[in-house]
Amino acid sequence: MLRIAVPNKGSLSGPASAMLHEAGYQQRKESKELVLVDPENEVEFFYLRPRDIAIYVSSGRLDIGITGRDLLLDSGASAEEILQLGFARSTFRYATRPGTAKDVADFTGMTVATSYEGIVAAHLAEHGIDASVVHLDGAVETAVELGVAQIIADVVETGTSLRNAGLEVIGEPIMTSEAVVIRRTGADAEDPKVRQFLRRLQGVLVARSYVMMDYDCRVEHLEQAVALTPGLESPTISPLHHEGWVAVRSMVAAKEAQRIMDDLYELGARAILTTAIHACRL
């Protein structure tokens, strides 16, 4: 069986399990379940701490895993990302009290507090900065107030918690992160079971990004309509019983669907419908 690590908690857990369910895999019903066997798909899922997943995968005990890019890089494990999953996006930034520093070049001799010691140490070394790094678990915003560090490095979404702690974001982002599928560095890239798993997840990503659009159109406006909805290869076009009209079906990007519907309506198209796509293969 293909052995896959899945986050057992945190912001990665729910979306990862939801994507796997959409891809046709069984998922656990109780949060206490640590292992789930899906015999129909010949897969065994192991629910682990997100921070540990890269270590397990790099050891070869598990074939692939889902974790965050930040956790993968921070672990220093011999594993690599092979598919971006598009959820749990975040930006990793430095922050400090106003007037302390403007960017990483000012950190020499200072101390940086973070939960991601590996990432920060590598970033400082890359810029040739001689600064200390102290590891803290959980929220690090209070490290400056308590005198543990002059700088913190953490995931920043809205920045509200930083402002509440009297801190401001400084410098360029250290990195951006999102959920990714990982495998051991040097593992067989042509493993058919892994390739099938990736195809399923890619199918979910495409299904989430596109909708199926159907509409009726006058024949004389068909070329203009097709230019708006070219589809992946080309749209499906069928004649209607009412002479001079055709029915068109095409995949369109979900984020552009409303604009395209407006343009089609102005062109004279009618009965314009969109439906969700639950799965696909390209």
UniProtKB/TrEMBL annotation:
<dbReference type="InterPro" id="IPR015867">
    <property type="entry name" value="N-reg_PII/ATP_PRibTrfase_C"/>
</dbReference>
<keyword id="KW-0808">Transferase</keyword>
<keyword id="KW-0067">ATP-binding</keyword>
<keyword id="KW-0479">Metal-binding</keyword>
<dbReference type="GO" id="GO:0016757">
    <property type="term" value="F:glycosyltransferase activity"/>
</dbReference>
<keyword id="KW-0028">Amino-acid biosynthesis</keyword>
<keyword id="KW-0547">Nucleotide-binding</keyword>
<dbReference type="InterPro" id="IPR020621">
    <property type="entry name" value="ATP-PRT_HisG_long"/>
</dbReference>
<feature type="domain" description="ATP phosphoribosyltransferase catalytic">
    <location>
        <begin position="49"/>
        <end position="203"/>
    </location>
</feature>
<comment type="function">
    <text>Catalyzes the condensation of ATP and 5-phosphoribose 1-diphosphate to form N'-(5'-phosphoribosyl)-ATP (PR-ATP). Has a crucial role in the pathway because the rate of histidine biosynthesis seems to be controlled primarily by regulation of HisG enzymatic activity.</text>
</comment>
<comment type="similarity">
    <text>Belongs to the ATP phosphoribosyltransferase family. Long subfamily.</text>
</comment>
<keyword id="KW-0460">Magnesium</keyword>
<comment type="pathway">
    <text>Amino-acid biosynthesis; L-histidine biosynthesis; L-histidine from 5-phospho-alpha-D-ribose 1-diphosphate: step 1/9.</text>
</comment>
<dbReference type="InterPro" id="IPR013115">
    <property type="entry name" value="HisG_C"/>
</dbReference>
<dbReference type="Pfam" id="PF08029">
    <property type="entry name" value="HisG_C"/>
</dbReference>
<dbReference type="InterPro" id="IPR013820">
    <property type="entry name" value="ATP_PRibTrfase_cat"/>
</dbReference>
<protein>
    <recommendedName>
        <fullName>ATP phosphoribosyltransferase</fullName>
        <ecNumber>2.4.2.17</ecNumber>
    </recommendedName>
</protein>
<dbReference type="Pfam" id="PF01634">
    <property type="entry name" value="HisG"/>
</dbReference>
<feature type="domain" description="Histidine biosynthesis HisG C-terminal">
    <location>
        <begin position="207"/>
        <end position="278"/>
    </location>
</feature>
<dbReference type="InterPro" id="IPR011322">
    <property type="entry name" value="N-reg_PII-like_a/b"/>
</dbReference>
<keyword id="KW-0368">Histidine biosynthesis</keyword>
<keyword id="KW-0963">Cytoplasm</keyword>
<dbReference type="InterPro" id="IPR001348">
    <property type="entry name" value="ATP_PRibTrfase_HisG"/>
</dbReference>
<keyword id="KW-0328">Glycosyltransferase</keyword>
